[in-house]
Amino acid sequence: MAVNYGSKRTVVGAHYGMRDWLSQRVTAALMGIFTLVVLAQVLFTSGPVGYDRWAGIFAPQWMKVLTFTVIAALLWHVWVGMRDVWMDYVQPVGIRLALQIFTIVWLVGCAGWAIQVLWRI
């Protein structure tokens, strides 16, 4: 009879499972709904759609907040996907860590740029 001492939990790999699957679906749905909102606003505006119309669509505070929420969802969506790609396909731990750090820095930079564009800081 075998005696089991301690846990047999594996501590390597992208074992986040259901949480990541659900976050990918929720963020994708949020981005899809946002796309439909923006598309409806563009389709229901009269006249040519130039810079003034685009600026008008994103001028209200609620639209800026909604847009940034969707950008944050997009950044989380990208992080979950890229983290899984790095963990699945890059075997050397040092290179994988460097790629993950680069991805985080890049995504934080994109978030800062999005804030700057939306609120003209």
From TrEMBL:
<keyword id="KW-0812">Transmembrane</keyword>
<keyword id="KW-1003">Cell membrane</keyword>
<dbReference type="InterPro" id="IPR000701">
    <property type="entry name" value="SuccDH_FuR_B_TM-su"/>
</dbReference>
<keyword id="KW-0479">Metal-binding</keyword>
<dbReference type="Pfam" id="PF01127">
    <property type="entry name" value="Sdh_cyt"/>
</dbReference>
<dbReference type="GO" id="GO:0020037">
    <property type="term" value="F:heme binding"/>
</dbReference>
<keyword id="KW-0249">Electron transport</keyword>
<dbReference type="InterPro" id="IPR014312">
    <property type="entry name" value="Succ_DH_anchor"/>
</dbReference>
<dbReference type="InterPro" id="IPR034804">
    <property type="entry name" value="SQR/QFR_C/D"/>
</dbReference>
<feature type="transmembrane region" description="Helical">
    <location>
        <begin position="26"/>
        <end position="44"/>
    </location>
</feature>
<dbReference type="GO" id="GO:0006099">
    <property type="term" value="P:tricarboxylic acid cycle"/>
</dbReference>
<keyword id="KW-0816">Tricarboxylic acid cycle</keyword>
<feature type="binding site" description="axial binding residue">
    <location>
        <position position="77"/>
    </location>
    <ligand>
        <name>heme</name>
    </ligand>
</feature>
<keyword id="KW-0813">Transport</keyword>
<protein>
    <recommendedName>
        <fullName>Succinate dehydrogenase hydrophobic membrane anchor subunit</fullName>
    </recommendedName>
</protein>
<keyword id="KW-0472">Membrane</keyword>
<keyword id="KW-0349">Heme</keyword>
<keyword id="KW-1133">Transmembrane helix</keyword>
<dbReference type="GO" id="GO:0046872">
    <property type="term" value="F:metal ion binding"/>
</dbReference>
<keyword id="KW-0997">Cell inner membrane</keyword>
<dbReference type="GO" id="GO:0017004">
    <property type="term" value="P:cytochrome complex assembly"/>
</dbReference>
<feature type="transmembrane region" description="Helical">
    <location>
        <begin position="65"/>
        <end position="82"/>
    </location>
</feature>
<feature type="binding site">
    <location>
        <position position="89"/>
    </location>
    <ligand>
        <name>a ubiquinone</name>
    </ligand>
</feature>
<feature type="transmembrane region" description="Helical">
    <location>
        <begin position="97"/>
        <end position="119"/>
    </location>
</feature>
<comment type="pathway">
    <text>Carbohydrate metabolism; tricarboxylic acid cycle.</text>
</comment>
<comment type="function">
    <text>Membrane-anchoring subunit of succinate dehydrogenase (SDH).</text>
</comment>
<keyword id="KW-0408">Iron</keyword>
<dbReference type="GO" id="GO:0009055">
    <property type="term" value="F:electron transfer activity"/>
</dbReference>
<dbReference type="GO" id="GO:0005886">
    <property type="term" value="C:plasma membrane"/>
</dbReference>
